[in-house]
Amino acid sequence: MADWPDLPAALIAEVREFIRIDHLADDDAIDAFLRSAASLCEDFTGQMLIIRSVTDILPARREWQKLKRLPVQSIASVEAMGADGIAAVLAVEDYALDIDSDGIGWIRLHRSDGGSRIRVTYSAGLATDWDELPAGLRQGIVRMAGYLYANRDGVDAGGPPSAVTALWRPFRRMRMA
Q: CA-CA distance, 48 to 68, in Å (whole number)?
């Protein structure tokens, strides 16, 4: 599961209100369901919700390569990794970076020092905190957490409810295999 920042009490209260409970006894469960719902949202949309640091290990190549997580906000470092796993920071003139208008991060090496892999550390995500998330994503997460809470002892129905997917679909990033 994703390494989520702390959930604000207001978000937990929003789920409590949605599922119409007025006690705090289930807040730990609601917190867990919110984290699961947020992870499901990320998987469904193909985008990280809250900006976090990410590290990708890629082959050391001279052609453009796409970073794995979206949307990329900034690229912090690029390191060459030797066969022994030891990393060395690459000089800026040894590679090119780009973040395109769709938030996709790209990297290309100008030259290779013989290492077989590179490690790229970057920040990716839509918002700096939960309050900045687009309303449709946030409401879908609240509804999904409520659904998980209500069905916590039941059989999995096979995916998010249609109301949730309708809220998330405008933000979905499809990937062609």
A: 11
